[in-house]
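Aim 2, interim progress: modelling of the cytidine-5'-monophosphate-bound target.
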Amino acid sequence: MNNKIFIACDTTNVQKIRKIINKTQNSKLKVGYKFGLEFLNSKNGRKFIGNVNKKIVFADLKLHDIPNTCASAIKAIRDLKVNYITIHISSGLEALKAAKKVSGKMKLVGVTMLTSLNNKALKEIGFNKDVKKIVLDQARVAKKAKLDAIVCSPQEIKIVKKVFKKEIITPGIRFNSKKNDQKRILTPKQAYKNGSDWLVIGRPITEGNIKKNIQTLIHHLNQ
Ligand code: C5P
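Predicted structure of the complex, ligand included:
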């Protein structure tokens, strides 16, 4: 199946997660579930993830720390046996290598510059190069560290693909007019066209009528 989507389950509510999983089952899309900082840090989150069966599970750990701490955190979560975990590439090559050494069967995904940042916001925190140049450097480092996948904006897929030949996962996807806090966005169709393997979609699916949102997405993809 070509249309692969991770649904971002951003809530602390286990009932809501069950509802999201239930209402997003369909035959037109291959669906995985992404659990991020909100759910992972919630009281029932870790336990719930440990018991999810027969689903593709993405634990968006967003590690950003020194090599020893990143590696130790990965060892601490290995019992969950999730399929994908993330680390910020800006943790540096040594941290990425240390993480890769202990990630085992879990795919280690490198996160490039967050899709909520534009050039102005990046300048404020001292990044003066164009975001596309920064992401290209980060893709090179991800390749060196032999990471299994990259998370980037759909606007930067072609740049990443120049140097990184493995899986590409793209958040910053919108098929309605609500951008929320995202800046570097594209539509699902454009993201697949640019070569994304997996899309990450949260609020455009999980807010409001989930089934209807999925139908709108499928309709958009078939147009
Ligand atoms: O609701 P929305 O579709 O904006 O959700 C996007 C998801 O992808 C969120 O869970 C967010 O944490 C994650 N993400 C992102 N940008 C990145 C990396 C991850 O939006 N660069």
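The beta strands are 4-8, 30-35, 56-63, 84-88, 107-111, 149-151, 167-170, 198-201. The mean pLDDT is 96.
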